[in-house]
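ERR on first pass: missing label on line 2. Operator R.T. fixed the label and resubmitted. Corrected input:
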Amino acid sequence: SQQGEEDPQALSIQEGENATMNCSYKTSINNLQWYRQNSGRGLVHLILIRSNEREKHSGRLRVTLDTSKKSSSLLITASRAADTASYFCATRRNTGTASKLTFGTGTRLQVTL
Amino acid sequence: DTGVSQDPRHKITKRGQNVTFRCDPISEHNRLYWYRQTLGQGPEFLTYFQNEAQLEKSRLLSDRFSAERPKGSFSTLEIQRTEQGDSAMYLCASSPRQGGETQYFGPGTRLLVL
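pass 2 clean. output:
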């Protein structure tokens, strides 16, 4: 079953604007990751944040994690048309099969010129 | 690294037929995962190998599904007696022993069962 839920389900912005996506999850986690998927293709890893971290940056990406609220956000600054894709959060749990990732339902981002 | 490859990229089959998909992970990645993704949803975990050992199977993996990784390198996923509900994208991913939290995904095999 899907553990994470992304919000919004779809987002349309203009090039140059910032895009913010949110993810909520249900169980305790070891880390949370964000992946990007272009239409009909495989997923590309973007960034990983551990449960003891609160914020992480990578280029134009900024991820926050609030374990008390079981939520994370992904901010893409100065968006480009090439950022058009679906974005998924994925959690790795603390117990059980540590390597298994549980994905959310995704946010479809459309960046227009 | 040449990346994770999957074959075929697309498969159309008739209900009741058997299909087999292949995944070649990044060389020296000892962990291999299979996921299934239906339209508009995120990937769902199916099974996980560490080397040749299959360490976990999801309840989604009914007895019609079988996965193998005989030599700890490539893996196959077979679906027997396919049903229309099996139509989905089947994704393979691999990760290394060191720093294995990031998973590297292949392009997927899109299955359509008619």
